[in-house]
Specification:
The protein is mostly helical. Helices cover 64% and strands 7% of the residues. The protein is built from six helices and two strands; from the N terminus they run H-H-H-E-E-H-H-H. The chain has helices spanning 16-19, 32-55, 59-86, 117-143, 150-172, 178-200; strands spanning 88-94, 100-106. The protein has a two-stranded antiparallel sheet. Strand 1 and strand 2 form a beta hairpin. Helix 2 runs antiparallel to helix 3 and helix 4 packs antiparallel against helix 5.
C-alpha cells in the first residue's frame, strides 16, 4: 500500500489541550471563503433533509437536492478545504498493474503555510459533527418507518464518513491504525487523570 506517514503537529484533532501551550499559530481565519463553504454544503444538506417535507411535496426533488449538496460538500472538503484549512489531503491512485492505492498526505512546513487554530477547529468540528448527525438520522429513519429516506441518509453517511475517515488517516498517518490511535489517546488521558489525582493527595 502506497502511503506516507504524515503525522504532523500543525493540525489538532484529539490533542487540543496539549496544543494549547503552542500558541505560536495565529487564531485568525486565513481562508474565510473555504471555511464558509466547508460548513455551508453540510449545513444546507442537513437543513434540506430536516425541512424538505414542510416546503415540498416532491420526494424526488428533495432527494436530488440533498444528494447534490452532499456531493458538492464531498468534493469541496476533499479537494479544497482540507488542503487549505489544515494542510491534509488524500486520494486513490491506480498503478500500472491496476491495483488501487490510497495515499494520505500532510503538509509539513512552518510560517505562513501553517494552519490557524480557528480554521483547524472549524474543519474538525464540521468534519466530525455532521457524520454523527447522519447516524442519528439513520436511526430515526428506521424507528419512524420512513424507509424511503434511508438511501438519502445512507448517502449522507457514506460521503461525509468517507471524508472523515480519509482525514483522520491523514492526521494519524497512513500506516497507523485507528485502533492504535484510540488506545494511545485514552491511555494518555487515563495517565493524566491518575497523575492529577496523585498530585492532589
Amino acid at each position: 500500500m502506497l502511503s506516507e506517514d504524515t503525522n504532523d503537529e500543525d493540525v489538532s484533532l484529539f490533542d487540543a489541550e496539549e496544543d494549547a501551550g503552542k500558541r505560536s499559530k495565529k487564531s485568525s481565519i486565513k481562508h474565510p471563503v473555504a471555511s464558509f463553504f466547508h460548513l455551508f454544503f453540510r449545513a444546507c444538506a442537513i437543513l434540506v433533509y430536516l425541512l424538505c417535507e414542510i416546503f415540498s411535496r416532491s420526494f424526488i426533488a428533495c432527494m436530488v437536492t440533498i444528494i447534490l449538496l452532499l456531493s458538492c460538500d464531498f468534493w469541496t472538503v476533499k479537494n479544497i478545504t482540507g488542503r487549505l484549512m489544515v494542510g491534509l489531503r488524500w486520494w486513490n491512485q491506480v498503478d500500472d498493474d491496476g491495483r488501487s492505492h490510497w495515499v494520505f498526505e500532510s503538509r509539513k512546513g512552518s510560517g505562513k503555510q501553517q494552519a490557524s487554530d480557528s480554521e483547524s477547529r472549524i474543519f474538525w468540528l464540521g468534519l466530525i459533527v455532521c457524520p454523527v448527525l447522519w447516524v442519528i438520522f439513520a436511526f430515526s429513519t428506521l424507528f419512524s418507518f420512513k424507509i424511503k429516506w434511508m438511501p438519502v441518509v445512507i448517502m449522507g453517511l457514506v460521503l461525509q464518513g468517507a471524508n472523515l475517515y480519509g482525514y483522520v488517516r491523514c492526521k494519524v498517518g497512513g500506516k497507523t491504525s485507528l485502533k492504535n490511535m484510540a488506545t494511545n489517546y485514552f491511555g494518555r488521558q487515563f495517565l493524566k487523570q491518575a497523575l492529577s489525582k496523585e498530585e492532589e493527595s
